[in-house]
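DATA SHEET
Item: assembly model
Revision: 1
Owner: S.N.
Input lines:
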Amino acid sequence: MIETLAERVNSDAMLVKRGRFLSTTFLLEVGPTPWLIAIAQGKIASVTRGPFVMPSWTFALRAPESEWQQFWAARPLPGHHDLMALIKRRVLKAEGDLHPFMANLRYFKEALAKLRAEKVAA
Amino acid sequence: MTAQFEQVLGRYMNLDLFRRKHRIYVEEAGEGVPLLCLHTAGSDGRQYRALMNDARITANHRVIAFDMPWHGKSSPPEGWHDEEYQLTSVQYTTMILTIMDALGLDKPIVMGCSIGGRIVLHLALEHPERFSAIIGLQAGAHVDPYYDLNFLHRPDVHGGEVCAAIVSGLVGPDAPDCDRWETLWHYMQGGPGVFKGDLYFYKLDGDIRGRVAGIDTSRCPLFLLSGEYDYSCTPEETLAVARSIAGCEVQIMQGLGHFPMSEDPAKFLSYLLPVLNRIAEAGKAPRRVAARS
């Protein structure tokens, strides 16, 4: 599913525009599986699955797989519905040089929420 | 197209606070029991726009909201450009009581959200005789910092963008888009360092955990309403406060977040109106007793 991030983000023109000053590589850790995600001027340039020998990244977002699964549910429960909520509950660790993350916080919240399951029509 | 004016009226009040001249913006609407409304950190009185435009409230209440100094249309005091804004419990309490006096409010209902929800706990403890009822929205006794607050005020991060992004997830999932983004726009408009300065009270100076159990609801009724999706002041934290205070009434508002009056006014009013009715009914009883004596 995470492989689809590039397609999901890059097809949202406003999201890409919002990230036009953002070029970085960050590590997304989903339980035992690390992913390197490269962003170039707001577009997801690559999504690479680990393990890695010598990964280089600016910052890392690490959470257990079950937490990401709940975050990516179509309608997450309270406390599972936002990156800051995960950080508040101390289950998401944000580490490294967090300037690009915080300076583009709306971008990262919306980009990672793109992996949410489609809501079933009522 | 015909222009339609709201009944909300705004005025500027000049007064001294903390021995400094201040220019404070005050809005109000309606007539009746004064209902003084306190906005959240980093925002302003526009959060109460829906209450001021709802006849179910304004028919019996004079709804008043002021922008705290540094917020909204209220100016920071002269000399602000060479100082760091940090809100303290003492300043916040003094500000509220001074503005109440200036407006001639006699025992208003006070309702505050987030930092406003915290300060009303301080008011309930220290000045219960000044209010006819106290309503705390998203009221907890303490919040531990959960991110580096320095990101809120540094020149290489856009303050408006980051403040709104920090709080965006505090809006409940079902909030109407227009109200969700209006709420976030207020955050985007905050002055540099103001949200951070308010959080000094919220996360450091305003900790009331050790004293909150001393609130005596026989001196002033206390109602707590908290949104289910709030992770800043969680429902559990509000319930913990309520459990520690005899006579405190509490309700968790399903589907709502940290800004109930602003993010989803219709849903919020379904919780608030019964509380206001309760306060009105309770207010009638003592007056009848007094008339007979």
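QC remark: Chain A has a mean pLDDT of 96.
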